[in-house]
Amino acid sequence: MCCLAVRCSGCAAVHDAVRVYTPAEAARLLKVSESWLRKKAAARVIPCTFFGKHLRFSEDDLAAIVRAGARGPVVAAPVTSRRSST
Question: Edge-to-edge, what's the strand order for the sheet holding 54-58?
C-alpha cells in the first residue's frame, strides 16, 4: 500500500522524484489566489493533477501555467507628428 504522506519501501524512488502541491501551496508559489487557481483547474483551463477527488499541482503543472501566462513585450507603434496646415 502506498501513500504520498508515508514513505514505503516499495516506491521510495517515486516519492523522491515526484513533488505535488496542494492548491494553497501552488497558489502561494504562483502568487495568485487559491480561489482563482481552483476555478481555473475546475474549468480545465490550466494543467492540474487529480488523485481521486484531490486536486494537486505537479512541478510540471506549475511550470506550464507560468509558460502559458508569459507575454512578450509590447512594441509601440511609431509616433508620427501631425503638421498643422497654416
Answer: 20-21, 54-58, 49-51
Grid cell, residue 63, equals 511550470
The letter for the amino acid at 72 is G
pLDDT higher than threshold 60 for residue 10 = no
Is-above-0.70 flag for pTM?
no
Q: Which three cell numbers stand for residue 58?
A: 505537479
Distance CA 47, CA 67 (A): 11
- Helix or strand holding residue 39 (H, E): helix 34-42
Strand pairing class (49-51; 20-21): unpaired
